[in-house]
Amino acid sequence: MSIRGLILIFFILRLFNITNPPLETGHNWRQALTNMIARNFYQGEFSLLYPKIDMAGALSGIIGSEFPLFNALIYLCFEIFGFEHWYGRLINLIISSIGIYFFFKVLKELFTSRIAYYSTIILLCSIWFSFSRKIMPDTFSVSLVIISLSSLIQYIRESSISNLVYFIILGSLGCLSKIPAISLLSPLIIIFFIPSINRKKRTFISFAVLIVAFITALWYFYWVPHLTSTYQYELYFPKTLADGFLELKNHIPDLFKRFYFSAFLSYIAFVSFIIGAIFLVKDKMYYALSGLLAAFIIFGVFIIKTGAVFPTHNYYIIPFVPFMAFTAGYSVSKISNKWAAVVCTLIFVEAIANQQHDFFIKDENRYKLKLEKIGQNTIDDKELIVINGGKSPQLIYFINKKGWSVSNKFLEDPTKIDSLKSLGAQKLIIDKKTSTMNYPFKKAYNGEHFEVYDLLEPQEL
User: Fold this and answer.
1) What gap in Å lies between CA 10 and CA 327, rounded to an integer?
2) Residue 236 pLDDT > 70
3) Residue 10 CB contacts under 8 Å (≥ 6 apart), including other chains
4) Which of 26, 182, 323, 339 has a Cα at 20 to 30 A from 374?
5) How far apart are CA 408 and CA 413, in angstroms?
């Protein structure tokens, strides 16, 4: 089957339950946050420089986060079609599927169509399968960078400046959308060792990469710190290299698991990766090995900078998975078509079996969808709320109000509730599934799953 046909089949498979709201077990919090920023563009002011969330309490909600390109595309769908929870799923699936095709094109240009074919199949089955339909910018950002690399290869072959411009634009957008995607550019260091690439092209490529790096650094190392210091809310908390390394030491088993399982969700694929690495050394594929090493070093810096976050979040491995898929695909390309088909089939069955749960929502979680109507009927738009959603933004996203999302333990202390009242909190929303406490305030709503307290009205005796 042609690679386009395979990508189309995988695209259709992932359309199953594509209209689900972000209620699945895996990473619903991150998807809710992505949609939250997009919805604030829609309901408030659209500004790429000032993304906003709802859970910053009395603060403005402006947050230091990734460049909100993905959120802006979701917002555009809101403007055209009206609000729905799932548009980001489809946007990500489309861009990620295009990215997969260009992954094939890049490998076909650099190696052989056979290596490209099997590497692409393995990438399709990897963690990419489920995360390319989540409302998250991870595969989205990596896809944009992969597409940019295809333009760069065309520049090398054709000396077309327009392709170099496409590389700068797409590469910048990809790296801005999620900075770890920049690790896909690290193998470009080998252009200085390829005799067929003349000095002029090396110079132009170097400047192009520097432009991408500068634009990315401008956002993440100037603008994000500015937003954080000015508006006092930050999405992520990077560590120093020393602190990150110390945190990683306490999570070594989980760190290894991100590579041997989370990347492919298939032990067969990981074994293929190990064998592929051996073959690359045996075949003296020095350029490929140098590129992989460069990518691993740069990606390793990101791993250390995230500290405990990397080993405790499976999707952080995504930018390195294309390199692993190539290495695994290289080993599969060494065997006959018949056995290669068997190996790929086994990888598909194992990997999809380990990801199929992500396509379903448990009925027991659908009650959260009632929150928005409850909020509309009992809470004014300007009122600040407190909700027992903990660190996750999911509940405050579904109720579509602004305020604080706190833990049940936090709410056990009356003085802490009073402190939020002093900051302007007016309503308290309780998810009764996680808390059975009663509070000394008048109930504005009492339903099967939620209750709403008016913090300005004491409980009637």
Assistant:
1) 21
2) no
3) 97, 100, 124, 129
4) 26
5) 9
d(CA 110, CA 126): 22
- For the record, the structure tokens of 204 come out as 């132009």
Distance CA 427, CA 400 (A): 13
Could you give the CA distance from residue 97 to residue 140 in angstroms, rounded to a whole number? 9
Residue corresponding to tokens 């929502």: 361
Beta strand 425-431 with 384-387 is: parallel
| Three state DSSP letters for the chain | CCHHHHHHHHHHHCCCCCCCCCCCCCCHHHHHHHHHHHHHHHHCCCCCCCCECCCCCCCCCECECCCCHHHHHHHHHHHHHCCCCCHHHHHHHHHHHHHHHHHHHHHHHHCCHHHHHHHHHHHHHCCHHHHCCCCCCHHHHHHHHHHHHHHHHHHHHHCCHHHHHHHHHHHHHHHHHCHHHHHHHHHHHHHHHCCCCCHHHHHHHHHHHHHHHHHHHHHHHHHHHHHHHHHCCECCCCCCHHHHHHHHHCCHHHHHHHHHHHCCCCHHHHHHHHHHHHHHHHCCCHHHHHHHHHHHHHHHHHHHHHCCHHHHCHHHHHHHHHHHHHHHHHHHCCCCHHHHHHHHHHHHHHHHHCCHHHHCCCHHHHHHHHHHHHHHHHCCCCCEEEECCCCCCHHHHHHCCCEEECCHHHHCCHHHHHHHHHCCEEEEEEECCCCCCCCCEEEEEECCCEEEEEEEEECCC
**Cα dihedral 301→304→305→308 (10° resolution):** 150
User: Sheet containing 450-458: which strands, arranged edge to edge?
Assistant: 403-405, 384-387, 425-431, 450-458, 441-446
Average pLDDT on 191-213 reads 93
pTM score: 0.94
What does the pLDDT look like over 263-276, one tens digit per residue?
Answer: 999 999 999 999 99
% residues pLDDT > 90 (the chain): 87
Confidence grade of residue 460 (pLDDT, cut at 50, 70, 90): low
Residue (of 104, 199, 185) closest to 152 by Cα position: 185
Q: Provide the token pair at 206.
A: 């170097």
| Residue 13 clears pLDDT 80, i.e. is over it | yes
Separation CA 148–CA 255 (nearest Å): 30
